[in-house]
């Protein structure tokens, strides 16, 4: 039976049409440029602040040396594991330097350099990777969340913190870092969605380094780019050359400023490459060829910046040596302090499970105490 | 002397009142979850909070449990005290990653530098005729995670007192709300709310000499009824309401079992790998010489929670408790 056939319906049935559908947000300005944004080697480079570039350079060189030193420490058994960010230093450093002191950083396990560039003691930053049970630093003191191992789970934390800060009237921005693989996790989606709906002052930085352990990006996503994902949430997406420290700093700086003035979140994809294996425990030759790695070595973030600085006469042999020397001093200090045997107090294991120890934990602590005392007597 | 008007109130109202009082006292307390605002939650437990405190304090979130708890982590990192509502027991599972990997251990891994005062309210358990995924008892999962407190009230008074304590706690608390008790009436005055109940103390709901029923949450009224029924058969049963599963009040429980010499653990979650196994083991380890019989368990069957039309066969009722009590007439070799 059609509407017309309904008894008496032909004249009476006058449905109000539903309101015309239109998109809630014009997607055009949210779309990333398909070409990653670059500064170094382009005309835009002329307008960059020499002091900033020099600072970025010093941090890049220090960061590279840190990666090399930390990897060496794994070989000596001083670090349990180290996920090197060699090749990605521009993302790490530029991200950290785009923040003000009152802002917060939410790093993943690979982002030790960002934490160090933000001023964290290099040894403290390695506490968890060394195999200790705690972060080694007080997150509140440095406004750096604990390095996060479960993928993408730090992203909603960043959103919640930024949201809370805004509710309190503080102009604090949270920067959350994640890898390309992490963008497939549910928490990535939930965090971006919450951030956009709440207009939370968050910047999401995806370091697309080509692989999630061994899985290439093509098997991770069918999206045109990871930055394109932003449009679906109603936030701008930006694509940037992750090896171009000046470009990363500029794009992050804009996103941070936008978030700070209430403009809401941004998703930034930095296209970069992981030169080393996933961690010291990984064999990268099983999933990629040396030719590919060589292409990226030629696009090294330190060389790119060095070329820019020397061509503009801002850096000479002496300057290069000075940066290398400063990095060497840092590495020697790191080596020395990491080579000192860590002193761990087993009784601490019971200290911070709850604000007040439960009677169950008190009993277990007493048991361990007795075992330790007995060991001491035996020695 | 004036007598305060004593109005009957429901557990749902007591919980709502607890949140309202906590929010009024401390601007850091924020409520968030699915439908907690205009609707007041699907069980109306957050009724009126958005209106009274604004949507910034009582927030309808997007529909994403990991997102709700994950953003609550960040909010707590910035000094707020989030109270999150998980709409139903089985819909809290998407948030387990956040709960276990972050909420439960943030204090520990930051050496006390970053405690997370988050209350996770989870309506749980069966008996309301819910379709699948609406009746799970997930307490064993929570109990198995160090760093979480796990509490569950059985009375209107405790609902208020324990929720106040949970919100005030500097540690994360999984607050399990027995949904079939949401509307059970009891004498309780909303004008003179009960005291904040410290977390970690069991209470003897009924004293007795011949055996102890150890129970919590939705099974407490069942045990009380069983105790009354058993009295007719000459059993004088003591009923211990745990109130807090973590921390566990060994002292109260064991003092009771030492007095009575016999114990039955009663809960509606599954028996295998369930809370009862842990409780029975603890009691046995601590009270072995006082026991006249093995510690027995009365639990739900080890099956996925059954459909509403069959759930009465699954839920441990008075008869099953009484059967277990009869089996406490234990003789060696039997
Ligand atoms: C939830 C979760 N699943 C799996 C892992 C194991 N895992 C560690 S790193 C990694 C790959 C991550 O790749 P990506 O997000 O691209 O970051 P990258 O390591 O390249 O920086 C995996 C699968 C994990 N840490 N967390």
Automatic annotation (TrEMBL), chain A:
<feature type="region of interest" description="Disordered">
    <location>
        <begin position="1"/>
        <end position="33"/>
    </location>
</feature>
<keyword id="KW-0786">Thiamine pyrophosphate</keyword>
<dbReference type="GO" id="GO:0016624">
    <property type="term" value="F:oxidoreductase activity, acting on the aldehyde or oxo group of donors, disulfide as acceptor"/>
</dbReference>
<dbReference type="InterPro" id="IPR017596">
    <property type="entry name" value="PdhA/BkdA"/>
</dbReference>
<dbReference type="InterPro" id="IPR050771">
    <property type="entry name" value="Alpha-ketoacid_DH_E1_comp"/>
</dbReference>
<feature type="domain" description="Dehydrogenase E1 component">
    <location>
        <begin position="71"/>
        <end position="326"/>
    </location>
</feature>
<dbReference type="InterPro" id="IPR001017">
    <property type="entry name" value="DH_E1"/>
</dbReference>
<keyword id="KW-0560">Oxidoreductase</keyword>
<protein>
    <submittedName>
        <fullName>Pyruvate dehydrogenase (Acetyl-transferring) E1 component subunit alpha</fullName>
    </submittedName>
</protein>
<dbReference type="InterPro" id="IPR029061">
    <property type="entry name" value="THDP-binding"/>
</dbReference>
<dbReference type="GO" id="GO:0009083">
    <property type="term" value="P:branched-chain amino acid catabolic process"/>
</dbReference>
<keyword id="KW-0670">Pyruvate</keyword>
<dbReference type="Pfam" id="PF00676">
    <property type="entry name" value="E1_dh"/>
</dbReference>
<dbReference type="GO" id="GO:0000287">
    <property type="term" value="F:magnesium ion binding"/>
</dbReference>
From TrEMBL, chain B:
<dbReference type="InterPro" id="IPR033248">
    <property type="entry name" value="Transketolase_C"/>
</dbReference>
<dbReference type="Pfam" id="PF02780">
    <property type="entry name" value="Transketolase_C"/>
</dbReference>
<dbReference type="GO" id="GO:0007584">
    <property type="term" value="P:response to nutrient"/>
</dbReference>
<protein>
    <recommendedName>
        <fullName>3-methyl-2-oxobutanoate dehydrogenase (2-methylpropanoyl-transferring)</fullName>
        <ecNumber>1.2.4.4</ecNumber>
    </recommendedName>
</protein>
<dbReference type="GO" id="GO:0003863">
    <property type="term" value="F:branched-chain 2-oxo acid dehydrogenase activity"/>
</dbReference>
<dbReference type="Pfam" id="PF02779">
    <property type="entry name" value="Transket_pyr"/>
</dbReference>
<dbReference type="InterPro" id="IPR009014">
    <property type="entry name" value="Transketo_C/PFOR_II"/>
</dbReference>
<feature type="domain" description="Transketolase-like pyrimidine-binding">
    <location>
        <begin position="9"/>
        <end position="184"/>
    </location>
</feature>
<dbReference type="InterPro" id="IPR005475">
    <property type="entry name" value="Transketolase-like_Pyr-bd"/>
</dbReference>
<dbReference type="GO" id="GO:0009083">
    <property type="term" value="P:branched-chain amino acid catabolic process"/>
</dbReference>
<dbReference type="InterPro" id="IPR029061">
    <property type="entry name" value="THDP-binding"/>
</dbReference>
<keyword id="KW-0560">Oxidoreductase</keyword>
<dbReference type="GO" id="GO:0000287">
    <property type="term" value="F:magnesium ion binding"/>
</dbReference>
